[in-house]
Design brief:
Helix content is about 30%, strand content about 25%. With about 375 residues, it is an alpha/beta fold.
Length: about 375
């Protein structure tokens, strides 16, 4: 249940958060692209409503098509673009098409709905040095933006800093508040944009919206870390969904010996699918991807990647491409993050209209596959 007050508050928060960066660049009004679906909270509040509130012009496109997007940038002299990571990947993967269009008007790209990996961010700066790239973070339950990157305060690998009148805190697994930088914890948010709750679902409302001595908070279900930016501001990096973390435990090898080894338990590891996905997207053979946990007898859970092959490797055998992708991860990531669950190729990664990966559908697909294989045995 979203109140008018929630949306109005967030429009004011978005405007005043980015005001210093716009003033620094001499920008009073600008032209932005309206590519994302306006039926989603990101498109509705951040693009349509906030754009009108700031006095910006918005060029609406009915759907994403790379050439149409580039032609629109050139024709309408687009200054500001709200995008999602998959579209940014398409810009990077098609330098020849991009070079045929005048993109010099673009000053800032703002991305949300899913984390943008630091490697991809770096690639964007190399490919488009004239464009500043920043991230934001929010939820439907926060009527949208709670972290945002202003043009004058970009910290790579984070979703920016808190918008005005918003508070955040991180809790560890025991419910204790984390006061250190770079330590992961569950993210809780307090803001005037916080919605009223879930319609006709008191239980879900009570579980998500909690009270303490500091007032009403929402448990986002996301895992985040706080970092100090060079500007001195605190920035937040949202690293993954709490429920989507892959929990692995180390394998204990018992050596052949006359001595008995007693295993009393070992600390497990948590693997963030978003981290692996961001890394995989930097491999030239990967057009798109998603990572989910799959069962493993020894480790409990291990990562498995669903990959859409790039056009450049479509003709190569799947086994060869999968081997290259696994080796790429093994060369850059800790052993417990390796793709021990395998690599499976699919035609398209299921996503919501805003670009979020629908991991549930892939998990159902994996369960059905394993159920079928068990039936054959």
């Amino acid at each position: 249940m979203i109140a008018h007050r929630n949306v109005i508050a967030n429009l004011m928060q978005i405007r005043w958060h980015e005001d210093a960066g716009r003033r620094q660049n001499g920008v009073e009004t600008q032209t932005q692209i309206g590519l994302l679906p306006l039926s989603h909270i990101y498109g509705l509040v951040v693009i349509a409503n906030a754009g009108a509130y700031r006095g910006d012009g918005t060029i609406i496109l009915p759907r994403f098509e790379l050439t149409t997007l580039l032609e629109s940038i050139q024709r309408f002299k687009i200054n500001f673009m709200h995008l999602v990571p998959p579209i940014i990947i398409q810009l990077l993967r098609n330098p020849e098409i991009c070079s045929r269009h005048d993109l010099s008007s673009v000053r800032f790209i703002y991305t949300g709905a899913a984390p943008l990996g630091a490697e991809t961010h770096e690639d964007m700066l190399k490919a488009f040095p004239m464009i500043t790239v920043g991230q934001g973070y929010g939820m439907t339950e926060t009527s949208t933006v709670v972290f945002s990157t202003a043009e004058n305060d970009v910290m790579m690998g984070t979703s920016g800093s808190l918008v005005p009148a918003t508070r955040a805190k991180l809790l560890d697994g025991e419910g204790r508040e984390i006061t250190e930088y770079d330590k992961r914890g569950e993210l809780l948010i307090q803001s005037p944009s916080l919605t009223l709750g879930y319609l006709h679902n008191e239980r879900a409302t009570a579980e998500a919206f909690v009270w303490d001595q500091d007032g009403r908070w929402i448990r986002t279900g996301d895992v985040a870390v706080a970092r100090r930016a060079p500007s001195g501001n605190e920035h937040f990096a949202v690293v993954d969904r709490l429920k989507e973390l892959i929990k692995t435990k180390p394998n204990i090898l018992i050596p052949p010996s006359r001595y008995t080894l007693t295993y009393t338990g070992a600390q497990g590891h948590q693997v963030a699918p978003a981290e692996l996905e961001a890394h995989l997207l930097t491999h030239p053979a990967v057009h798109d991807c998603a990572v989910i946990p799959v069962p493993d007898e020894d480790a409990g859970e291990v990562p498995k990647a669903f990959v859409v092959k790039s056009a450049s490797v479509v003709a190569k055998p799947n086994e060869e491409v999968a081997r290259e992708i696994r080796r790429y991860v093994e060369a850059h990531k800790a052993r417990y993050k390796w793709l021990k669950g395998g690599v499976e190729f699919i035609d398209v990664v299921p996503k919501s209209p805003s670009g979020k990966i629908l991991r549930r559908l892939l998990k159902d697909k994996e369960k059905e596959k394993r159920r079928a294989e068990a039936a054959k045995l």
